[in-house]
Model the fold of this input.
Amino acid sequence: MKKVRKAVFPVAGLGTRFLPATKAIPKEMLTVVDRPVIQYVVDEAREAGIEHLIFVTGRNKGVIEDYFDIQVELVGTLQERNKQKELDLLDSLQPRPGTASFTRQQAPLGLGHAVWCARDLVGGEPFALLLPDMIMQAERGCLARMVELYEQTGGNVISVEQCDPQSTEKYGIVGRGEDVGTGFHITGMVEKPKPAEAPSNFYISGRYILQPEIFSILETQEKGAGNEIQLTDGMLKLAASQEFYGYHFTGRTFDCGSKEGFIQANVAFALWRPDIRNRVFDDIGELLQTVEPAEQLAAQ
Ligand code: UTP
Done:
């Protein structure tokens, strides 16, 4: 079985739910505590043993490439000032030369199309796909757990979580088959089913290990929901010839593409950090007691 060495990060979306911020800043560069959202996802990939990072970027996303490069002037200044702690931090986060690649999705035609844009960089091997606006909090990362499951099962592995059974219309939902190792066999996938028609309440939550055959399917994939080329439609076709397994992630997931999820992520990761936890805890307690909704903003 081929090892999962490469990870794809599709970062070409428009981030319309986060306007006006995303006019000038990619949503993947918004900051959770003291680092951009994308850094959390890259850390999760590295923890899982990923050796090569592939970013599918788009217009106005150049700052992501800059972020993963060495900032020569900054490093020089920190050296002059003997800021060793800061230098060590930057060094620990720096991808080694040649281990990060960037390709452009020229128009945001959908997630399936963004993944297809990475085909030449991935080549003919299984790869991980991480949606960078979903960040996860767990003692051991979701992708690392998925790689463990993949090493038992082969095939394709998708992270799933449980939603309120009445909210299935918001998600891609999978059917649950027999248990396999730390996961289960997926018996089907449905995009945004009504609660009565949903095969379960397990939704696809943003991490995938996929076989390279997905690329030839995506090449001819027609537009689906939202007039976009959908990854789920491609996976459904692949499921006709390959096995899919669900890894049930039970840590915390935050959708940083939404305002509420992004704020929750900031609070949760601040509370996770021993250096700032106590102060943040006290401050939030006080804010909860004293801040009232602003009437002049209610109409916006
Ligand atoms: P989303 O639909 O959540 O991102 O796609 P979006 O389109 O940027 O967000 P809104 O709805 O307008 O606020 C999930 C992931 O897939 C990427 C996005 O960057 C995001 O990380 N994506 C989506 C692409 O790279 N290309 C696309 O054409 C669509």
User: Anything to note?
Assistant: The first strand starts at residue 6 and ends at 10. The chain is about 35% helix and 25% strand. The chain has one domain: 6-257.
